[in-house]
Amino acid sequence: MKNKVTKIGVLTSGGDSPGMNACVRAVVRTGLYNNIEMFGIMRGYTGMVEDDIVKLESRSVANIIQRGGTVLKTSRSKEFLTPEGRKKAYGNLKKHGINGLVIIGGDGSFRGAQIFSSEFDIPCIGLPGTIDKDIAGTDFTIGFDTAVNTAVEAIDKIRDTAEAHDRLFIIEVMGRDAGYIALHSGIATGAENILIPEKKTDIENIIGQLAEKERRHKLVNLIVVAEGEEFGGADEVAKYIKGRLPLLEVRVCILGHIQRGGAPSCMDRLLASRMGYHAIECLIDGRHNVFVGVVNNKINYIPLDEAIKKKQKVSEEWLKIVKILAT
Ligand code: F6P
Fold first, then answer.
1. Which residues contact 17 (CB under 8 A, 6 or more apart)?
2. Is residue 307 in contact with ligand 1, taking CB distance under 6 Å?
């Protein structure tokens, strides 16, 4: 069923991720190409509630494809979580005549979109913009590739100094409840151990490996820990290891928000451009309340209510590869 969509609002919500700007650009330019009026909703759902909405032209999104962060700014809106907040947001969209929404964000943002689209007659399309890659139904999320490359660059540097001093380094990466940044950056840097929330941490096994290395005077070791790992992150792991092996020189490095910034990689720019284009196509084709993913390099549409129920699983193949290559 074709639906006449004439005015579309686009917003970025939740934690920013590199490539969000490239995505906004693609959404805006594809909309304009189809003679649709385009609006930027500032600061995520906050701008919807507070009527911070601006008209966008092609030149409004010039020279942003290469920039990290988001020109639309972002937030995690508390007011939008309430029925009153969403009603206000709807009123503001109606005031501008907006009859389609594109939401670029993570699973929390999709949850907001799902509730909003079930309460009001404004079709919503989600685009997965998060460094965490924790959304089922897409092989990649916008920003993940850049964040992993940032982590890899940092961990390579840490290995240099670890080698120089014969030290054990415990490096914490982001990912909220998901271990993908840790898994990918750990494999790519040859980390000796990778600790992720999706797999139970066998700390005694790690202690055994370290004790054996200590005995052989092979002390360089990198442990990459996902922030959501069950042991409590890098500081807790370090404390435990120090308690058990007091002679080891242990250092902790928490990479933090550096992983969220910087120029998006080529892969993220391409993904963002492709997904942004398809979001507008969805609204024009009347394919509503879905998010756009990419699976096996093909565009995939997942209903928003399904998306918020599932988490992306870590593949057994990668876990096996980690085990074999880190020995
Ligand atoms: O979801 C993206 C993310 O960077 C997570 O990896 C991290 O746990 C969280 O956001 C940090 O949030 P904040 O920027 O609010 O500290």
1. 129, 130, 131, 141, 142, 143, 144, 146, 147, 260
2. no
Residue bearing tokens 């330019």:
29
The closest-lying atom of ligand 1 relative to the alpha carbon of residue 174 is: 6
Reference 229, options 257, 203, 260, 198; nearest CA is 198
In angstroms, the CA 140 to CA 220 distance is 32
Neighbour tally for 163: CB within 10 Å: 12
Q: List the domain boundaries for the chain.
A: 7-143+264-307, 145-260
Is 9 close to ligand 1, i.e. is its CB under 6 Å away?
no
- Among 176, 177, 184, 312, say which to mutate for ligand 1: greatest number of ligand atoms within 8 Å of CB: 176
Give the closest residue (by CA) to ligand 1 atom 8: 176
* 7-143+264-307 matches 145-260 in fold: yes
Q: 15 CA distance to ligand 1 centroid (A)?
A: 6
Other C-beta atoms closer than 10 Å to the C-beta of 26 total: 25
What digits encode the pLDDT tens for the residues 50-106? Answer: 999 999 999 999 999 999 999 999 999 999 999 999 999 999 999 999 999 999 999
Active-site residue, 121 included: no
Residue nearest to atom 13 of ligand 1 (CA): 15
Active-site option among 132, 134, 145, 268? 132
pLDDT-flagged residues of the chain (< 50): 1
Tokens 């995505």 locate to 23
Predicted pLDDT of residue 2: 52
- The CATH class for the domain spanning 7-143+264-307 reads alpha beta
- What's the topology of domain 145-260? Rossmann fold (3.40.50)
Q: Which two tokens stand for residue 24?
A: 């906004």
